[in-house]
Amino acid sequence: MKRVALSTLSLALLATAGVAHAQSSVTLYGVIDESIQWAHNTMDANGANKNQVGLVGGNLSGDRWGLKGTEDLGAGLKAVFQLENGFDINSGALGQGGKMFGRQAFVGLAHDQYGTLTLGRQYDPLVDMVQPLTADNYFGSTFATPGDIDNNDNSSRTNNAIKYTSPVLSGFQFEGFYALGGVAGSTGSGQTWSAAATYGVGSFNFAAGYFRADNGSTLASRFNTSGDAAWSSGATSDAVFDNQITAGYVSAKSIGIASAAGQYVAGPFTFSIRYSNVQFKPDAFSTAANAGFNSTERFNIAGGYVGYQLTPAMLLGLGYTYTHGSGNVSNTYHQVALGGDYNLSKRTDLYAVAAYQHASGNQLNADGTTSGAGAAIGSYSYNSASNSQELVSVGIRHKF
Fold first, then answer.
1. What mean pLDDT value characterizes the chain?
2. Separation CA 388–CA 374 (nearest Å)
3. How far apart are CA 398 and CA 400, in angstroms?
4. Which domains does the chain have, with CATH numbers?
5. Each residue of 209-218: pLDDT tens digit?
6. This prediction's pTM
């Protein structure tokens, strides 16, 4: 009788533990992506073109590890959080400017019926809704916009962000996003706001949205320690000025990005098209510090992608991106990319990607001078002293 009672008690405790486990969970996850890469026409420290061969990580997916979790609060309400670290696999250094959780760091509440509200360092709605319908979602940085001007490769994250994500309503979903500048006496200084929506029905998906990031409002915040024009440290959004395509616009008063993408799946084929309009707006400070940047610079980007699922394990992809800049200077970039990805298992795959880019026209340099447009494939920030560049990567990716 005693044994029966103990057995019954043990079963009850196990059942209780099972319920507790279902109510709360924490997941450790990550991606390790490494390749051998060859790049042609890459500028060295002396401004001359050289070939470059080396190990480069994060081609298809940025290297990361993270923790994410939920707690069931009852009545359809859950607490959610995510902490995600980015790193350089070849040096072990922290990514995203040395931030511990530079990729994501947020906490919030999610409800089955009313949607999700999160607060912290986050991706903007264009990254969440438009980017997944583009070639970058499948083959990463090599297929991204030259210089990642429109953040198609997720180079920028936003601090101090409040984001609302709606539930899916008959195939429709939307996000709203606002980041507080947090400057005493100037709440809007360095603010960011964005909104996007997506709609899916059958094999067709469409998404569109707009993103606006402001620089610091004071002149003092718009200089670095060397006295040069800079994207303010008080701005809530990271800015991508680490390539020669955008270097001349670092003092921009604001960055505006309008993006849209559509995707159609037909059997083993995936077709997608996308368009972005990016605007770097100057002000009096920009004109004084950089005589070359005195009117709005606009970039129009159009891209297409075709993916073919050759076998359940093998994906092939072809992408083309057209980029045209106008305003202070006029330039055009044509970029073609090829890729192949083979799954060894659900968690490990081998890949090969390659791209060619040709540039024409002129570019605005960081010192305000102009020169012939140089190539810069995808989001690698490999500047070139010529108008063409080629890149090939062969690698392995493991997810856990």
1. 90
2. 7
3. 7
4. 25-399 (2.40.160.10)
5. 999 999 876 5
6. 0.89
